[in-house]
Structures are given as structure tokens and as C-alpha cells.
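Hey, sorry to bother you again with one of my protein questions. I've been puzzling over a protein and I'd love to understand its fold better. Take your time with it, there's no hurry, and the full record follows here:
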Amino acid sequence: MSDSLTLSPLTATVLLLVLVFAGRAFRQNWKAQGAFWRVKAWAYGLAAVIAFAALAFLQVQA
């Protein structure tokens, strides 16, 4: 693979935090089901999925 498809440890840490906080916000939003909860759920869910995919499929530099 190309070197451009790697994550620095700092970027990987930030993506992990985005994954955790977006996943938590998704869950809380789903349980509360307030105003525009579906739109918010999609936004939080997409952020979590993108962060997960980046962590799962890109290598972290050592």
C-alpha cells in the first residue's frame, strides 16, 4: 500500500475519540427521540461509521 494511506498515532487517537463520542451521542439521541432525532442520528451515525472505517482499514504508523 501507499504511505499516504496511513494514520499518524495522533490522528488515530482523534478518530477513536470521534468514534466514542459520536457513538455515545447516537445512542443518547436514539433513546431520547427529541426534535429532529432521525437527522441527528444519521449525522452521529455517519461520523461514527467513517471514523470506524478509517481505523479499521488504514494502517497506523509505528
The CA atoms of residues 32 and 57 lie 32 Å apart.
